[in-house]
Design brief:
- The protein is of the alpha+beta class and 574 residues long.
- Keywords: ATP-binding, Magnesium, Metal-binding, Nucleotide-binding, Nucleotidyltransferase, Transferase.
- GO terms for molecular function: AMPylase activity; ATP binding; metal ion binding.
């Protein structure tokens, strides 16, 4: 760490500590690790694997296996942490300074109160049923209840083998761990539902990885991320048991009851007086009464939350890369950050996943359809377990489509600063952006500089967008000029001042996104033992909509080296 960063960090820490000391009402609620209020509802209420060994095997009639972290460490180091996640847990930020913190959050030393386990689930991978998958390198420590009775599950990713590791080593490397940590926190700051990350610890031991599957493995630094979410349940958590026949169908119901009880409790208490019923739109005009079946109401909520999250992905140009059903959160969270990528040049066919290249199933433009396909698999699982009838199943899928379009249209309308959705204008814009490979993030940020003044001469219309419209010829300039003229015409009917519209647009169009090359720069520095860049990128990404003077370099277009293999595109292996 350089002296400037060290000084800034020292001043910041002193200020925070002083603030905490001055605020008695705050400080008395902050907890030491030993004081966390653990609850183990998952372990307590769901069927367990009778075995606790880590021999790879089919685990039947069980939702989890109790396993202990087994990762080897040598002088583990704390690389980066999130104080905002510590706040969720009401954990005293001074706990990050404990000498034993890296040992506890690498899993090398047991955390008091934890009851570690690995979850059992299956999933469709690239559209094909893959059978049992499970937590192959993630070990949940348990759930922490804060003073508001919010439930937060803590999970160590890369903590060693489990029965679900198959032929893998159960470990993770610094490269993928930094990407997961930074993207979890960046997505939260963008307002997108996501799992979170409390901290990242380097184990001090190397891990062998063949990053490109080309027969050239190399040693990389090992690391562990502590992931935090209200639950890590996935679509595949239910699918697996439904796939195993009659004997395990009751587990689907048990798991659904557990999920509704802890994460959708409002559905337990529905009464007929609420009359939540909807026309299915079918010929017989029959209605789906969601108050008579809590599972149907739940399926609809899962479908709508999934749709809403994916609409937000589309709004910021985020491509997940591996939308398998085992990577779909039942709470609608963005989960499992592998070969993700934010759009640089606008390309609807972009996929950040080299494994996905042949068919581009998980390309940016296809994410909404994949979301629907995944919801259909989830609804079919509940139907197989006789928790939904066909009408209810179809209705959940219908609600997905309606919710996605409602949210996506609202997001795009706000991104353009329009008073109402204009399909033709937005469609034309995206077509132009794709033709000229315009940077997605920078373009929308610059768009707020357009003035709603129809008298601006044609040859000056594109000046505010000059930094985004690079190397375009005369014909393309004419196409853009035509679009901007119609855009200004539309803006002039909104009644908003230019200043008001700019502020509104800048609150939804980020200046800073976690471009892959920014991750790579932080990874390169951390692999050399300098963690300051990871921490700096985290700070910038925590305020993506602010100008942040002095940090402009983090909004720059990717340099030429960013297009080398392993930076712009990655494989599922990490």
């Amino acid at each position: 760490m350089d002296s400037t960063t060290a000084t800034v960090d020292l001043v910041t820490n002193n200020f925070k500590n002083q603030s905490l000391e001055n605020d008695d009402s705050n400080s008395k609620h902050l907890l030491k690790l030993e004081d966390l209020n653990w609850d183990h509802s998952f372990v307590r209420e769901l069927p367990a694997d009778p075995r606790t060994d880590i021999i790879p095997r089919e685990v039947v009639h069980a939702c989890y296996t109790k396993v202990l972290p087994s990762v080897e460490v040598e002088n583990p180091e704390l690389v980066v942490w999130s104080e905002s996640v510590a706040e969720l847990l009401e954990l005293d930020p001074k706990e990050f300074e404990r000498p034993d913190f890296p040992l506890l959050f690498s899993g090398a030393s047991p955390l008091a109160g934890a009851v570690p386990y690995a979850q059992n689930y299956g999933g469709h991978q690239f559209g094909t049923w893959a059978g049992q998958l499970g937590d192959g390198r993630a070990i949940t420590l348990g759930e922490v209840l804060n003073s508001k009775s919010e439930r937060w599950e803590l999970q160590l990713k890369g903590a060693g083998k489990t029965p679900y590791s198959r032929f893998a080593d159960g470990l993770a490397v610094l490269r993928s761990s930094i990407r997961e940590f930074l993207c979890s926190e960046a997505m939260h700051s963008l307002g997108i539902p996501t799992t979170r990350a409390l901290c990242l610890v380097m184990t001090g031991k190397d891990v062998t990885r063949d990053m490109f599957y080309d027969g050239n493995p190399k040693d990389e630094p090992g690391a562990i991320v502590c992931r935090v979410a209200q639950s890590f349940l996935r679509f595949g958590s239910y699918q697996l048991h439904a796939s195993r026949g009659k004997e395990d169908l009751e587990i689907v119901r048990t798991l659904a009851d557990y999920t509704i009880r802890h994460h959708f409790p409002h559905l337990e208490n529905m009464s007929k007086s609420e009359s939540i019923s909807f026309s299915t739109g079918e010929e017989d005009d029959s209605a789906v009464d969601l108050t008579s079946n809590k599972y149907a109401a739940w399926a609809v909520e899962v479908a709508e939350q999934t749709a809403s999250t994916i609409a937000r992905w589309q709004g910021v140009g985020f491509t997940h890369g591996v939308m398998n059903t085992d990577n779909m959160s039942v709470l609608g969270l963005t989960i499992d950050y592998g070969p993700f990528g934010f759009l640089d040049a606008f390309d609807p066919s972009y996929t950040p996943n080299t494994t996905d290249l042949p068919g581009r199933r998980y390309r940016f433009a296809n994410q909404p359809d994949i979301g629907l396909w995944n919801v259909a698999q989830f609804a079919s699982t509940l139907s197989t377990a006789e928790l939904l009838n066909d009408k209810e199943k179809n209705y959940a899928m219908e609600r997905y489509g309606i919710k996605f379009m409602d949210d996506y249209q609202a997001i795009m309308t706000k991104k353009l600063g329009l008073s109402k959705y204009n399909k033709q204008m937005i469609g034309e814009l995206l077509k132009n952006m794709a033709v000229d490979k315009v940077d997605f993030t920078n373009f929308f940020r610059l768009l707020s500089n357009i003035k709603a003044d129809p008298t601006i001469p044609d040859n000056q219309l594109l000046i505010p967008l000059k930094a985004a419209l690079l190397d375009i010829g005369k014909e393309r300039k004419e196409a853009w000029t035509s679009w901007v003229k119609s855009y200004i015409q539309e803006l002039s009917t909104s009644g908003l001042s230019d200043e008001e519209r700019k502020a509104s647009m800048n609150s939804v169009n980020p200046k800073y996104i976690l471009r892959n090359y920014l991750c790579q720069s932080a990874i390169d520095a951390a692999e050399q033992g300098y963690f300051g860049e990871v921490r700096r990128v985290l700070k910038v990404m925590q305020h993506p909509f602010d100008e942040q003077p002095g940090m402009e370099k983090y909004a720059r277009l990717p340099p030429a080296w960013a297009y080398r293999p392993g930076v712009g595109m990655l494989s599922c292996s990490s």
